[in-house]
Amino acid sequence: MVFDLQAYLDRCRRTINSELENLLPVSSPESKINAAMSYSILAGGKRVRPALCLAAAEAVGKSDSDIAAAACAIEMIHTYSLIHDDLPAMDDDDLRRGRPTCHVAFDEATAILAGDALLTLAFQTLAAAAADSGKEPGLWIEVINILATASGHQGMIKGQMQDIEAEKTPPALDQLEQMHALKTGAIIVASVKTGAILGGGSRDQIRMLGEYAGFIGLAFQVVDDILNVTGNPELMGKAIGTDLAKNKSTYPALMGLAGSQKFSGELISKSLRLLDNFDNRSEPLRVLATYIISRKR
Amino acid sequence: MVFDLQAYLDRCRRTINSELENLLPVSSPESKINAAMSYSILAGGKRVRPALCLAAAEAVGKSDSDIAAAACAIEMIHTYSLIHDDLPAMDDDDLRRGRPTCHVAFDEATAILAGDALLTLAFQTLAAAAADSGKEPGLWIEVINILATASGHQGMIKGQMQDIEAEKTPPALDQLEQMHALKTGAIIVASVKTGAILGGGSRDQIRMLGEYAGFIGLAFQVVDDILNVTGNPELMGKAIGTDLAKNKSTYPALMGLAGSQKFSGELISKSLRLLDNFDNRSEPLRVLATYIISRKR
Questions:
Q1: Distance (Å, whole) CA B108 – CA B87
Q2: B199: distance to nearest CA of chain A, Å?
Q3: At CA A14, angle to CA A10 and CA A20, rounded to 5?
Q4: Which top CATH class is B5-294?
Q5: Nearest Cβ partner of A112 from B90, B142, B148?
Q6: Which residues in B lie closer than 8 A to residue A116 (C-beta atoms)?
Q7: Who contacts A116 (Cβ-Cβ below 8 Å, separation ≥6)?
Q8: What contacts A10, CB < 8 A, 6 or more positions away?
Q9: Closest to A185 measured CA to CA, from A78, A85, A286
Q10: Buried b (16+ CB within 10 A) or exposed e, B60-76
Q11: Can you give the residue ranges of every domain in chain B?
């Protein structure tokens, strides 16, 4: 039987969206902050990171409902980073996921606070899930440490800072790779490790799945750069050609379009080889890896 | 023997500052984000919240070095909130602790990211301390939950949002009290509870110390409002009279200066009565409560 990725992703998305609706504060006209949090996180993201977390848990064992809570925490961290990256003082973007960005739909102060609140809610969600979970609390402590480290000044935030600096001095290929490993790769690796840890994986399994995630995380970014050249803006819900217009260092700019496509293919092959050490419960991770290079948005 | 508050506070401050220097990333000219984090948190704050955390741990038992790490996490959360509150889109303040605010000393993007990074580092610090600590991991999970809840959309951030809205519609006395309970009170209560939990306090002790903290948290804010009328700007490192100029709802504006002084005294008396249930190891908490109304900055 061929694994149906679309059905799998839809199922993950439904799980995550319904769990997110439980975890998010009730939105009301009196509470602009709650409304802004919901507006941004329920805007219909692809939920790739939570899906990777759930699939990693399945690959080593079983994905329980408390792992869905952890997957939601990851999506909260991802969404907070998008809200803050879009701010006028940062990338100054008006459109995200086909809708006005948070600071455009609300205002700048609300967007800053909504981002702060989602980041904080991520850790609250992890701690609450840990308290209700039958799992060893030490595993949750490890997950909190991994996610905080991946999203902090040694990870995602460091990468975002390098990205801002890169607009002044376009980076060379190795610097670009380091920047992406931090800005988008670290949280993808942490998402997969979170699933592997909470799913009860062995230390070896956690390490190998972390390496798998390192390869697909970089591939994800290379494909993002490719789509910014070749993509369909309607499908993507955002403008294309913006990297070229901003004279940004990208993979297509540094290694050409064909070179970038070849490179992303090689990364996916490497990630798949790591999955050879797992049984057929790793099928979702295998198909997610191939989805990452074939995606159109 | 009379308890020497100044010596106690100095000792707490030294403990916290030296621990913070270990926990913060090394500042370097290449890393603006690390430099901005250190700039803001090592700017010489009073360290009231960490001192309350350490004193609460002492009141129920003993303050170990892993509790100092938790106290530092609290100071990171406090400092992140100051950096973001000072931003142009929020209170637009140029001066903090007698020095240019983070976005003035660096730039807006760096200040947003430095705040994000300190908030994230707080949870990373708690998780790392938990992993190294001999204490039951479940206690740390409880602390992470309490601190995240107190600083998130149900606590500090909700209060900050109400404060922003209050500039349009000045709140009445009960709304003002609710706003302060959220904006500054929640994290003070959480600081004291963190110390009580990690210090090994009983459920009853944790609850009573939480109530103690509720009273001193509100008193702290009433005194802040009083100092904005009567304070010495040089001692305080910031301008005075700014609340009146902005036509803000404050305790002196709503209940007069004498009324505000009487009210803060009553709150402190209530807080002290709760400490009657503790032995003489609660002396630091007792003296901290009286410090809060006698402080000049």
A1: 7
A2: 19
A3: 140
A4: mainly alpha
A5: B90
A6: 80, 84, 115-116, 119, 157
A7: A80, B80, B84, B115, B116, B119, B157
A8: none
A9: A78
A10: bbebbebbbbbbbbbbb
A11: 5-294
Q: What's the pLDDT score for residue B65? A: 82
Residue of A nearest to B35 (CA): A153
Contact A138 B127 (CB under 8 A): no
Find the helix or strand (DSSP H, E) in which B7 lies.
helix B5-23
Q: Convert the pLDDT of each residue in A44-80 to its tens digit.
A: 788 999 999 999 999 998 777 889 999 999 999 999 9
Q: Using CA coordinates, name the residue in chain B closest to A153.
A: B117
Residue with tokens 């009580």: B196
What residues of A are in contact with residue B34 (Cβ under 8 Å)?
A: 153
Interface predicted TM-score of the whole assembly (ipTM), two decimals: 0.94
* Residue B121 · residue B69 · CB < 8 Å: no
Q: Do the chains contact at A137 and B141, CB–CB below 8 Å?
A: yes
DSSP element (H, E) containing A99: strand A99-100
Which of A84, A121, A124 lies closest to B112 in CB terms?
A: A84
Q: How far apart are CA A19 and CA B284, in angstroms?
A: 44
- Inter-chain contact B33–A116, Cβ cutoff 8 Å? no
Spatial contact of A163 and A179, defined as CB atoms under 8 Å apart: yes
Tens digits of pLDDT across chain B (297 residues):
567 888 998 999 999 999 999 999 877 767 899 999 999 999 878 899 999 999 999 999 877 788 999 999 999 999 999 999 999 999 899 998 889 999 999 999 999 999 999 999 999 999 999 999 989 999 999 999 999 999 999 999 999 999 888 888 888 899 999 999 999 999 999 999 999 999 999 999 999 999 999 999 999 999 989 998 887 777 776 677 777 777 778 899 999 999 999 999 999 999 999 999 999 999 999 999 998 888 776
Of the candidates A25, A127, A160, which has its C-beta nearest B148's C-beta? A127
Among A25, A89, A137, beta carbon nearest to B138: A137
- Which of A119, A120, A175, A194 is most worth mutating to test chain B (most B CB atoms within 10 A of its CB)? A120
Q: pTM here?
A: 0.94
Mean pLDDT, residues A182-208 taken together: 97
